[in-house]
Amino acid sequence: MIRFLLKGLFRDKSRSRLPVLVVATGVMLTVFMHTYITGFMGDTIEMNARFSLGHVKVMTRAYAENISQVPNDLALMDAGSLLGELNSKFPEVNWTPRIQLGGLVDAPDETGETRSQGPAIGMGIDLLSAESREAGRLNIQNSVVKGRMIQNTGEALLSHDFSEKLNVDIGDDITLIGTTMNGSMSMYNFKLAGTVSFGTEGLDRGTIIVDIADAQAALDMQDAAGEVLGFFESGFYDDEQAVELAESFNASYDDDQDEYAPVMKSLSQQGSMGQYVKLSDVWGIYITLVFIIAMALVLWNAGLLGGLRRYGEFGVRLAMGEEKNHVYMSLVYESIFIGIAGTVAGTAIGLFISALVQKYGIDISGMMEGASMMIPSTIRTRITPVDYYIGFIPGLFSTVTGTMLAGIGIYRRKTSQLFKELEA
Amino acid sequence: MVKMKTVITTILLFIAVFGAAQPAANEIIKKIDQNMSSENRVFESSMTIHGKRSSRTITSKTWSVGDKKSFTEYLSPAREQGTKMLKLENQLWIYSPSTDRTIQISGHMLRQSVMGSDLSYEDMMDDRKLSDTYDAVVTGTEEIDGRKTWVLELTAKVEDVAYARRKLWVDVERFVPLREELFAKSGQLLKQSTLSDVIQKQGRWFPTKIVFKDMLKQGDGTEFKITDILFNQDIPDHVFSKASLKM
Predict the structure, then answer these.
(1) Secondary structure (DSSP) of A237-305
(2) Burial class, B116, CB count within 10 angstroms (exposed 0-12 / middle 13-18 / buried 19+)
(3) Nearest CA in chain B to A176
(4) Per the confidence metrics, is the pTM higher than 0.95?
C-alpha cells in the first residue's frame, strides 16, 4: 500500500509538489529562525563573557561595588594564591586573571615628544603562559589585521582603527599612560606587535591588549589582579551552574568582614546582563514558540485545503466501493509522507542556510554605532541538536493534524448522494 | 562741646585699638604671601600617602622660582626614583626614566592625583600669591592648638583658579595659615588641609608639615613634610629647561 501511495504522489504532482513545497518552506523558516535566535542571543552572552564578565567572576567586595569604575586600587592582592584555591576547589572551571585598565596611549616622534595621543581602554590578559587559553577564547589570532600576536613581554596589540588614528605601525613604540593601583601616574612603553579588529564598535574604538605581566608591571600591581574570570569547560554559559558556583564560593567567606575579601558573581549577577540572560531564556522560547505556532497554522491550513481539494476524488473512490476508513487512512498516510518529505527537505535547506550564516555571518555594524552593550556586529546563527528535529513539529505534526481534520468529512459522505454530487 | 570731644576721642581710640588688633583682610593675606611666597626656594620633602589599604612615602627635591618655574626630582621609592616634573608658566611636563619619555600634562589630566596623593597637578601648578587671586573678608576668630587665628573667607577675583572659594584660619601673630578649606564654585568642600610645625627660617614663618585631605577621595589623607628648605638661593636657569628632565 505504501508503494502504491508513493507512486500516486509521484505521478500526481498536484498532490505532492505544492504541499511538499509549502511544508519545506515553513520548516526551513522555523529551523532558520531557531538557529538565528540561539546564535544571536548566545553570541551576545558569550561575547560579554569572554571579553569582560566571564561565566563567573571573582573580585574584591569593594571592587564589585564600584565595578563600573574599574577601580584597580581595590584589586585582589595575592592573586596567585587565590587562583590556586580556585583551581583546587573548582577544577571544572578554567580560571584566568585579568586587569582592566584605562588611560592614554601616546605615540612619540623621533625626539620622544608626543606625536599623537588618544584615550584607550585596555586589557591585561594572560597571553604568554603555556596553559593559558585566553588567546583562543578572545579569538585574538583570527582578529589580527596587521602584524602578529603578542609573543614577548613588552608587546601590545592595538585596535586597528585606533592604530590608524594614532598613525602608528607595527614595531613602533607606544607609551601607555595610566594610573597605578596606588593612584600614581604610570608610564610604560610597549612595542606594537599587531593590530586587531573584533567587529564590535566598543572594542574597536580604542583598545590596547597587553600581557597580564606587563599590565601588573605598568600599574604597580605585582601579584594582583582586578578580576579572576572563570569559564565553564563546555564553553557555554549555564546560569544555574554559575549561580550555584558563586553561592558555594561566597559561603566560604561569609564570616569574613573584610571589604577586600573575594566575592564571586555569575555573569547574570553582573550589571544588565542578568536581565539579558533571563530575557534570552524566556524570549528565545517565546519567539520560537510563536513562530512554530504560526507555521503550524499555515501548514495545518495547507493540510485542510489539500483534503478539501480532493473532495470529488474521495466521492468517486467511495462510489467505487472503497471503505471510508481506507480512504481516510490513505489520506493520512499521504500527508505523513508529504510531511516527512517536506520536513526533511525544509530541515536540510534550513540547516544549510543556517550553516552559511553561522560561517559567514550577517554584518550589522552599521546599526551598532554608539551601542553601549557588547553586541556582536556580525550576527551568526548557531546550529544546535534541537534544530535537527524542531521542524517536525510544524512540518509533520501540523500537516498531518490538518489532513486528519479535513479527512473527517469522508465519514459524512452518504453513498446514496454520491452520484448526485458527481452529476452536479 | 566737651562731651562731643569725649565721644570723638572714644571713637578714635576704639578704631585705633581694634583697627590695630585686626588689620584689613587683604592686609592679612598680603602678610601670608610674605611668609609663604618667595623669590625662589629649594626644599626637600617627604610625602606620606595614607591610602585605604596601605601607606607609602615618596621623597623629592624641588627648586622653584616665584610662581612661574618649578622643577621637582623624586628621590624614592625605587619605582618613582628619577621621575622629574617641570613647570614653566602654566605648562607641566613629567619625565619617566623607565620609559625615557617626557609627557606634557594638560587638560583634565591636571586634575589627576600627584603620585596617588590628595594633591592634584593643578594644586601644584597654582602657586600664585593669595593677594593676586583672591579677595578676603575676616569672618571671626578661633583658636587652633592653642593659637589664636583669624577666620578668613576668600573669594576668587580671577577666573583661572582651581578653587572658587577658600576658608583660611590664620595665626594672628605669625600670619601663617593653620587650616584651610577649599571649595568648588557650587560650594562643595573639595579639600581640607592642616598646617603645623611652623618654623622661623630666614626671617619668615613657614609651616613644614601639611596634611592634605581630598574630600572626594577615600583614604586618610596625605602628609607633606618639608625636611629642609632654603629661600632666595642662586638657582641656575638651566634647571628649568626640558633638557634637565633627562639629565
Answers:
(1) --HHHHHHHHHHHHHTTTT---TTSEEEEEGGGSTTHHHHHHHHHHHHHHHHHHHHHHHHHHHHHHHHH
(2) buried
(3) B99
(4) no
Domain layout of chain A by residue ranges: 2-47+276-423, 56-234
User: Rounded to whole angstroms, how far apart are CA atoms A168 and A183?
Assistant: 28
C-alpha dist (Å) from residue A117 to A206, A338, B11, B246 = 11, 66, 67, 21
The dihedral through the CA atoms of A205, A206, A209, A212 has a sign that is negative
Which residues share a beta bridge with A196? A144, A159
pLDDT in tens, chain B (247 residues): 445 555 555 554 444 444 445 578 989 999 999 999 888 899 999 999 998 888 999 999 999 998 889 999 999 999 899 999 999 887 889 999 999 998 888 777 777 888 889 988 888 777 789 999 999 999 999 999 999 999 999 999 998 888 999 999 999 999 999 999 999 999 999 999 999 999 999 889 999 999 999 998 888 899 999 999 999 888 999 999 988 998 8
Query: B-chain residues within 8 Å CB-CB of A179?
Result: 112, 116
CA distance A314 to A320: 10
Q: Which three cell numbers stand for residue A63?
A: 571592587
Residues 6+ apart with CB under 8 A from A400: A303, A332, A335, A336, A339
The single-letter code of the amino acid at A401 is T
DSSP summary character for residue A225: B
The region, left, alpha or beta by phi > 0 then psi within -120 to 50, assigned to residue A101 is: beta
**Within 10 Å of residue A386's Cβ, how many Cβ atoms?**
12
Whether the CB-CB separation of A230 and A239 falls below 8 Å is answered with no
CB contact under 8 A, A114 and B113: no
CA gap B43, B58 in Å, rounded: 14
Chain B residues with CB under 8 Å of A185 CB are: 94, 112, 114-115
Whether residue A73 and residue B52 make contact (CB cut-off 8 A), yes or no, is yes
| DSSP, res A385 | G
Radius of gyration of chain B (CA): 21
Chain A residues 62-81 with a CB less than 8 Å from chain B? 73-74, 77
Domains, chain B, ranges and CATH? 25-246 (2.50.20.10)
In chain A, which residues have their Cβ closer than 8 Å to the Cβ of B52? Answer: 73-74
Q: What three-state secondary structure class fits A25?
A: helix
Q: Which residues of B touch A72 (CB under 8 A)?
A: none
Q: Measure A131 CA to nearest chain B CA, in Å.
A: 30
Residues in chain B: 247
Q: How far apart are CA B184 and CA B178, in angstroms?
A: 20
* Complex ipTM: 0.74
